[in-house]
Specification:
Radius of gyration: 29 Å
Strand order of the largest sheet: 1-2
CATH superfamily of the largest domain: DnaJ domain
CATH class of the largest domain: Mainly Alpha
Number of domains: 3
Number of strands: 10
Strand content: 15-25%
Structural class: alpha+beta
Shape: elongated
Number of helices: 6
Helix content: 25-40%
Length: about 250
């Protein structure tokens, strides 16, 4: 059984040309022998070069998708040739550095040319963010002097901003949340609710109601009434999570 070029590049078979290039760039930099000295790195680097060489070429990719690596390298019947001619066999040049250089357009993409003509090296560093209970949307985590650094300049700070992924069941309510409301004139505003929300709870939003009769330039208040729908039943896992959150 032939090589799976899609698996080598860690992409799906329906990956776009941009996805293929992005995957090769990430993995080629990771497994380049100049950066990675682990055993088997060069062979992985060579496989990446061959996989990209095939999947980045429309004709090679079409042949591979239909007949696999064996058909690509052994030659297949050419539907467009006369007399039942066979297509030429594919043979990778076994020079992954050549593929690497053609892709990046440079012998060393690990360096960046500065305005003064000097080069500076790019180095990887792993930063760990420990997400703490109670962090909200917009929480900022700063790593001092861990960002980009230019010549004769102090490195910039690296800042991570928390983005909250909605949960399929649980939402913030008891300890505050933000509700998105469409106003009477079609605007979308975010209303922070910091009070404890209970059935029939009302939130007054000043100046977002109907225009006043005797002063059209001013508006009355918008009153939001909350109608809370409680679940009819909870799974054991949901109950366990609630007890954990409330330390019950």
């Amino acid at each position: 059984m032939g090589s799976d070029y899609y698996e080598i590049l860690e992409i799906n078979r329906n990956a776009s040309d941009a996805d293929i290039k992005k995957a090769y760039r990430r993995l080629a930099l990771k497994f380049h022998p100049a950066r990675n000295r682990e055993p088997g790195t060069y062979e992985k680097f060579r496989q990446l070069g061959e996989a990209f060489d095939v999947l980045s070429d429309l004709r090679k990719k079409a042949t591979y998708d239909k007949f696999g690596e064996d058909g690509l390298k052994a030659g297949i019947p050419n539907e467009f040739a006369k007399g039942g001619a066979w297509s030429s066999k594919y043979d990778y040049h076994d020079n992954p550095e050549k593929t690497f250089k053609e892709f990046f357009g440079s012998n060393n993409p690990f360096q960046v040319m500065n305005d003064n003509g000097c080069t500076s090296s790019i180095r990887d560093k792993m930063l760990t963010v420990t997400v703490k209970p109670g962090w909200k949307e917009g929480t900022r985590i700063t790593f001092p002097e861990e960002g980009d650094q230019g010549p004769n300049n102090i490195a910039a700070d690296m800042v991570f901003i928390v983005r909250q992924k909605p949960h399929s069941l649980f939402k913030r309510a008891l300890v505050g949340f933000v509700v998105e409301v469409e106003t009477l004139d079609g605007r979308i505003i975010n209303i922070p609710v910091n009070e404890i929300v209970h059935p029939s709870y009302k939130k007054v939003v000043p100046g977002e109601g109907m225009p006043l009769l005797h002063n059209q330039s001013q508006r009355g208040d918008l009153i939001l009434t909350f109608n809370i729908h409680f679940p009819e039943k909870l799974s054991k896992e949901s109950k366990h999570l609630i007890k954990q959150a409330l330390r019950y």
